C-alpha cells in the first residue's frame, strides 16, 4: 500500500474496513475491541445513532457548506445555543474550527489579543496539538519536533507526582507546594507578560494525570490575582470521558475563561472543534475582530453531526453510564496491577485509565525509553493477538474504550489485556 506512514513502528498496521459497536474489523476479518476509542475520540463507538446519520445526510443535501465570512448556517446558531446552555457560567463566545490543534491556536490568539500579553504557561507532559503554537505549547517530546525555539511558551511541572514524590506529603501539602512553585514561576516570568495559563483539565495522552484536590481552584484564584486568563484544554476529556461533561467540572467552582474541545464533540465521526470564551472576552472582540478563521470553520455538516451526537449523549445519559462503570474500570485496573510486576502503578477517572510500565531495577521509566520501547513491541504483538486495538505510548498504557461500552465488554477487555500483559512482564525481564 503506497501511503506515507513514517516510522517502522507503523508498518504492519491493519487495514481497517468497518466498525460495529465498540469493535473494529480489519480486511482479514479480525475483530478488535477498541480499547482506547482510537485516539480517545470515538466516544460513542461505531453504530452511529440514526439521528446523526439522518441529520448529516440532510445537511449534506440541503446546504453542504457555508463560509463563516459570508453567513451563519442555521445549524451553527442551533449548536452555539446548545453549547451555551451546556457550558457553565458565562462561557458563550464560540468559534468552531476543525480540530483540537486549531482550537488551541484560536485560544492562544484570543488570549494574546485580549490581554495584550504574550506568554503562555503550560505543563510538561501535556499535549496541545501539532500546529505551530499548539505544538510549542505542548509539554512532552512532541514539542521538540517543531524546533522548540518559539519564545513565549513557559513550562510548569504538573502537580501529580508521577515518578517522584514529596516523601510523606499529604494531598493538601502537595497542592500547596505545587501552587507555591507556580506562583514563584509567574512572579519570575512577570505577570505583566503572561496572557494565560493553558492546562489540560486532565492530562490525557501524557498519562491520565489528575491534579490533586484544590489545585485547579488555586490556579483559578492565582489567575484572578495576576490578571491572567485560565484556559482548560478539553480536547481529549471533554464530552464525558471523566464522568463529567467537561473535565474541569471535576473541580468544584472552577470556570475557565477559555475552553477548547474537539474529538468527543462529534465522537470523531466528522472533524469539528470548539473554542469558547467568557462573555467579557467575546464582547471585547465585537469592537476589534478576533482575526481567527479558516475555510472549514463552522462546517455545517460537521455541526449537524455534533448537534445530534451531543443530544444523543444527553438523551441516553451516557455520562451517567460512565459514572456507573467507573468503579469497575478502577477495580479491574487494580486487579491487573496486582497481577503484573511490569505495572508500577495506575490512575483512573471515569472511563479513562492509564497503567505505567517500569523496569525491574526500579529506575525511572521515563529515562529508559529504549528498553521500554523494545518491550512494548512484544506487548503490542500480544495485545493485538488478544484482539485489542488501541494507543500504546510507552511507558503508558491507556484504557479509554468508547463511553458506551457495556460492563460485560469492559470486563472482557480487561481479561484480554491481562493475558497480553504476560508478554510485557517477560519482555521487561520480570
Ligand atoms: N489537545 C489535547 C489535550 C489533545 O489530546 C489533542 C489530540 N490528541 C489535541 C489537543 C490536538 O487535537 P487534534 O489532534 O484534533 O488536532
Automatic annotation (TrEMBL):
Coiled-coil residues: none
Molecular function terms, GO-annotated: pyridoxal phosphate binding; transaminase activity
Any matching Pfam family: Aminotran_3
Gene Ontology terms: cellular component: cytosol
UniProt superkingdom: Eukaryota
UniProt keyword list: Pyridoxal phosphate
PANTHER family in the record: AMINOTRANSFERASE (PTHR43094), AMINOTRANSFERASE CLASS-III (PTHR43094:SF1)
Protein family per UniProt: Belongs to the class-III pyridoxal-phosphate-dependent aminotransferase family.
Name this polypeptide is given: Uncharacterized protein
Amino acid at each position: 500500500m503506497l501511503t506515507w506512514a513514517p516510522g517502522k513502528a507503523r508498518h504492519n498496521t491493519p487495514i481497517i474496513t468497518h466498525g460495529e459497536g465498540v469493535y473494529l474489523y480489519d480486511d482479514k476479518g479480525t475483530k478488535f475491541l477498541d480499547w482506547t476509542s482510537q485516539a480517545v475520540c470515538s466516544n460513542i463507538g461505531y453504530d452511529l445513532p440514526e439521528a446523526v446519520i439522518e441529520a448529516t445526510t440532510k445537511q449534506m443535501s440541503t446546504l453542504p457548506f457555508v463560509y463563516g465570512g459570508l453567513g451563519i448556517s442555521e445549524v451553527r446558531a442551533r449548536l452555539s445555543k446548545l453549547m451555551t446552555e451546556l457550558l457553565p457560567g458565562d462561557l458563550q463566545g464560540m468559534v468552531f474550527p476543525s480540530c483540537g490543534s486549531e482550537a488551541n491556536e484560536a485560544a492562544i490568539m484570543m488570549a494574546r489579543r485580549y490581554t495584550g500579553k504574550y506568554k503562555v504557561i503550560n505543563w510538561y507532559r501535556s499535549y496541545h496539538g501539532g500546529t505551530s503554537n499548539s505544538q510549542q505549547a505542548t509539554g512532552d517530546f512532541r514539542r521538540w519536533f517543531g524546533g522548540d525555539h518559539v519564545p513565549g511558551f513557559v513550562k510548569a511541572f504538573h502537580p501529580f507526582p508521577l515518578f517522584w514524590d514529596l516523601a510523606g506529603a499529604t494531598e493538601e501539602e502537595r497542592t500547596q507546594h505545587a501552587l507555591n512553585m507556580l506562583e514563584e514561576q509567574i512572579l519570575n516570568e512577570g505577570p505583566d507578560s503572561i496572557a494565560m495559563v493553558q492546562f489540560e483539565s486532565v492530562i490525557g495522552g501524557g498519562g491520565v494525570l489528575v491534579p490533586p484536590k484544590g489545585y485547579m481552584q488555586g490556579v483559578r484564584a492565582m489567575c484572578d490575582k495576576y490578571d491572567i486568563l485560565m484556559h482548560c484544554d478539553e480536547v481529549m476529556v471533554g464530552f464525558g470521558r471523566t464522568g463529567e461533561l467537561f473535565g474541569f467540572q471535576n473541580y468544584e467552582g472552577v470556570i475557565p475563561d477559555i475552553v477548547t474541545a474537539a474529538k468527543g464533540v462529534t465522537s470523531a465521526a466528522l472533524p469539528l472543534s470548539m473554542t469558547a470564551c467568557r462573555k467579557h472576552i467575546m464582547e471585547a472582540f465585537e469592537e476589534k475582530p478576533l482575526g481567527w478563521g479558516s475555510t472549514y470553520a463552522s462546517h455545517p455538516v460537521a455541526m449537524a453531526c455534533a448537534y445530534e451526537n451531543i443530544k444523543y449523549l444527553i438523551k441516553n445519559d451516557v455520562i451517567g453510564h460512565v459514572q456507573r462503570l467507573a468503579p469497575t474500570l478502577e477495580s479491574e485496573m487494580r486487579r491487573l496491577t496486582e497481577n503484573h510486576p511490569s505495572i508500577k502503578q495506575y490512575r483512573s477517572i471515569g472511563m479513562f485509565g492509564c497503567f505505567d510500565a517500569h523496569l525491574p531495577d526500579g529506575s525511572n521509566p521515563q529515562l529508559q525509553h529504549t528498553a521500554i520501547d523494545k518491550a512494548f513491541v512484544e506487548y503490542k504483538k500480544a495485545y493485538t493477538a488478544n484482539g485489542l486495538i488501541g494507543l500504546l505510548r510507552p511507558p503508558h498504557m491507556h484504557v479509554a474504550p468508547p463511553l458506551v461500552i457495556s460492563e460485560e465488554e469492559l470486563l472482557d477487555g480487561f481479561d484480554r489485556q491481562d493475558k497480553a500483559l504476560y508478554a510485557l512482564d517477560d519482555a521487561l525481564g520480570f
